Amino acid sequence: MLIGLVLCPGGCSTKPLPLAVAAAPPEDGAIKIGEKFSMQSKILKERRSYWVYLPESYHDKTFAPKRYPVLYLLDGGAHFHSASGVIQFMSAGINGNIQIPELIVVAIPNTQRTRDLTPSHSLRTTKGKEEPTLTPSGGGEAFLDFIRDELIPEIEGKYRTNPYRILVGHSFGGLFTMNALFRRPEIFQAYIAMDPSLWWDDQLLLRRARSRLEKTNDFQGSVYVTIANNNPATEAWDPEVAANAVRDLVEALKTNSSDSLQIRSRYYDSENHGSVPLMSLYDGLLFIFDGYKPSPAELEDPALLNAHFAKVSERLGFRVLPPEEFVSTWGEGALYWNHATNKAIEWFNLNTTNYPHSYINYDSLGFVYAQSGNKELAIKNYQKSLELNPEHRRAAEQIRRLTGFSDGGPLTNGIYKLINKRSGKALEVGGASPTNSASIVQGRYANGSHQQWKFTSQGDGYYQITAAHTGKALALSSEDAEKQGAKLVQRPVHGRANQIWRIIANGDGTDRVLNEHSGLAVQATHGTNNDGVNQWPWETGDQQKWRIQPAGAAGVHPEAR
After folding, report:
1. What stretch of H or E contains 239?
2. What is the CATH number that goes with domain 35-288?
């Protein structure tokens, strides 16, 4: 099978890799980054929406399902697009880039922002003046209860998550983020507070932190706090008071730091309050997942890579494995660009160790062993792949080829015509075309060589079927070989499964013709001349039944004899 390239060990190339299948874009052409949901909150007594971004690998059917850390994003309506893009860039393996693990993003849009994100009721600004727009303030405790008791259970019941949660907030959201650290430190394992409003209520959080630190220092996790350049001052705004409030709180935490709490702060001189979130998120994630990205030496040695992620797991407090897709692509690179078969086997064996229930890694090992001439191990790994996924047709195809076909089948080698039971029309190459990819259609039988087909037994009831007038194979294009409704064409003979057909008698004088790769049946779409022929799941309909009868050999192309 073939996966889309993520990285290119030894330099990039356009050469295709025959190991896994790239994800197709949505059929409707839309580029979708997430979904919107809503839930009724008993705590807040209102309906709350939340938006979810899932990594592309979440729905991948090729590799083993895995669990993901979750990033909870405040002011979700403002930051969902940018945050999802940053996280996708840092984690999806594009150009070999895996700075952080893939994350699920849960963005929480606002209803009453001031109410939900402030820890106390206060009307005072940085200069002590009262601001009437702050009247709804003070609902932060209830909002935190909503996240802990309603939203998080909803997310963890719906998605594959692991026990690592990150809270991210900007401005009032940063204030809420730091308050969550002090009030409910067990909920989240990491925090990013972006230019937080820690001046709030005469530096309430600083007073709370100092009071708590006098009694205990049980804070845990990673905390990243940023400060923007918010000059100049205005009549209602004092940027120095705001910045010093952040510095004072960070210093209090650093002074009382412990092995279980990692804290870092950064001042962005070239960013203001509105622009600082983007860089804050990027740098904050690098800090939280410091050490996640493997070194060049570790990317050359499967054992070192495994040891690297064991250390990452110890630091983060949950098991982190080398990403299966990444390791698979590295194995492909070893095989195709470096021609290092033994190294490719090491990479794929690393995946079978870490993901023992993932069928695709055994398929990859089967392919590598077959390429190196080790038929016994190739068959063994293909059999394991098929055991894990009985619908994995490629493994079954390769096992048949490696073990060898037996003699026999319902038809002897020869030239035949195929007449559809429903339409009475013959299977033919459209327009008697000699070209590659010419369409296969149906028409009134007139003993033309383009309506005659040479059957060559491959054993076990499988046949190579070639057009008598060109010697080219009845085939499905490799891009469409597994699709329902894919059209049939003629192509140069290469003997792969999308050109091999199984003939099974229906018991009524007709046969079904099934593609070896897809297992789908050849059917006539309509009953008129030049109507197309495609493949479809076997449904016993007359449009899928064919009378396969000997035909005259006149006009047979020499290559077809």
Report:
1. helix 239-255
2. 3.40.50.1820
